[in-house]
Amino acid sequence: MRNIKSISFLLAVLSLWACQHKRANENKSNAPNILFIMTDDHTTQAMSCYGSELISTPNLDRIANEGMRFDNCYVTNAICAPSRAVILTGKHSHLNGVTDNAKVFDGTQQTYPKLLQKAGYQTAMIGKWHLGSSPTGFDYWSVLPGQGNYYQPEFIEMGDTITEDGYVTDVITDKAIKWLDKRDTQQPFAMVYQHKAPHRNWMPAPRHLGVFEDKVFPEPSTLFDNYEGRGSAAREQEMEIGNHMWDAWDFKLATQSELEAFGKNNQLENIKDAKHHDVAGANKREQDLEKLYRVYSRMTPEQQQQWHKAYTKRIKKHRDHKFNYQELISWKYQLYMRDYMACLLSLDENIGRLLQHLDEKGILDNTIIVYTSDQGFFLGEHGWFDKRIMYEQCYRMPLLIRYPQVVKNGTVSKALCMNLDFAPTLLDYAGVVIPDDMQGRSLRPVFEKDGAVPANWRKATYYHYYEYPSWHSVKRHYGMRTERFKLIHFYNDVDEWELYDLENDPQELNNVIDHPEYTDLVPNLKKQLEKLQAEYKDNSAKQN
Ligand code: SGN
Ligand code: CA
Question: Any idea which fold 464-543 has?
Fold first, then answer.
C-alpha cells in the first residue's frame, strides 16, 4: 500500500515537472498569443457585462472582469463584410474596397494576419469569413461559405468543401480547440475565431430550443417609435419587427405538417443550399416556407422533433389569439428575443469552453483575448431589428480585451475607439511595426492609463455606410460622433442632415439640426466632419 502511495507521489511530482518544463519551453519569443473572438450581430444590449437585464453572459463577463470593457467603440460601416475588411486592413472601406456586402475582398492587400505571419506567428482563421475571396495570411483556415448554416454546416477548409455534423457554434469551437492542440507550441499564435451566431434567422442549438418560451423580455421604451423628429431614412427603412420580419423564417411559425407537406410538394433544386431570396407579393407564405424549409431540412430527424416540440406552443398562440396591431408587435418582439437570446447561450458556453482550454494549457495569461462583434444590432429599439444606420445600438460595438500583463482587470474605458484600431493594437503588442498606411491607432495609450482617455486622443469617430438600395433599405450616409454630438448626412437619393445631442437625447429621438440653440454649433461640426474626411482620404460620397 505504502509502495503504491509513494509511486503515485513520484508520478505526480514527475508529471508536474514535465508540465512546467513544457510550459517553460513554450513560445520562446516573448510575443503574446492572440485570440480574436468575433460574433455576428451581437450587441451590447445583450451582454450582462454592459448592464443588460435581458440575458446573463457569464463567460463574456469574465473577459470584462479580468480585462477592460470599452464603452465607446464604434464601427466604421455597420455591416458584415465591410467591418471585417476594416478589421483586417486597418483601413476604411473606401480604401480596402469592401464598401458593402456584395464586394469581394482583394486578398492580395496588406492585412494584420499577414504581417503577424511574416513576424513568425502561426495564424488560423476559423468560422465566419464572408469576404467573397479565400482567406490569405493564414496557415490554416476553415470558413463557412457566405453566411453559413446553423445546422450541419459546410466549411471550406483550405480550399475543400466539407460538411460537419452538429451545431455551428459548437463545431467552430471544436475546430479552434483542435487547431490549438496541434500547433507548434514554440511559436506564438494568432487565431481568428469568428461565429455565425447570433445572426438572423436565430436558430438556437438543439439543447437550447425552447428555453425562453415562457420568458417575457422587457420591451425597449422606443419599440413603438413613430419616427417623428427624424428624417426620411428612419421612416423609409425596412427593418421593422412589425412589418419586415417573416412568420416562418424569423418567428418559426410553421407546423411540422406544413413543413413536411412543403417538402413533399416541392422538388427544390439543391435543397441544402441556404440561398436567400428577396421576396414579396402574393405567394409570400410559400417563399417564407421555402426559406425555413431549406434550413429545417438540414436537421436530423431527432433535431426536427426537438424543434417542433419547442415551437408548438407559440404557433398555437399565434393562431388562436386575436392580437391588435400593438399587441402583435409586442408578441413578435418576444418571439424575436427568445430565439436571439437562446443563440447567445451556446455562444457564451463555447467561449467559456475555449477560455478553459487556454487555462488548462497554461497559456491564458500570455494570450491577448479580444471579444467583439462585427457591429451592434437593434433589439427592438425604434421598433427595429438589423443594423446599418448610425444610431447607437448598432453603431456601437462590444469590445472587451483581456491581457493581464498590460490590461488592468475590471477596468472600463470611455475613449472613442473604432474597429479601425484593432489591427494596429494587435501589431503593436506583437512587436510588429504598424504600417503608416493603416488608419487606426493602437490602444496602448488607453491601456497604459487604465482606460482613462489619453491627452491627445481622437475627438471623434467617423462612419460611412454604402449598401443602398439593398436589403433593409437604409439610405447611404456618412457621419461623425464626438463625445456629445452625432452628425449624420444622408445622401444619394436625399440630401438630409441629422444632429443628435446625445447628452440630452441619448435615445436619438430629436434631430436638432434646425433647432435655433444649435445654429452656431452646426457649421463647426460640419467643418470637423470635413476634416475627418480629408484625414481619412474619403471623398467617395461625392462619387456615389
Ligand atoms: C441576410 C439577412 C439580412 C441581413 C444581411 C446582412 N437576411 O441577407 O437581414 O441584413 O444578411 O447581414 S436573411 O433573410 O437572409 O436572414 S450581415 O451580418 O451579413 O451583414
Ligand atoms: Ca453582422
Answer: Arylsulfatase, C-terminal domain (3.30.1120)
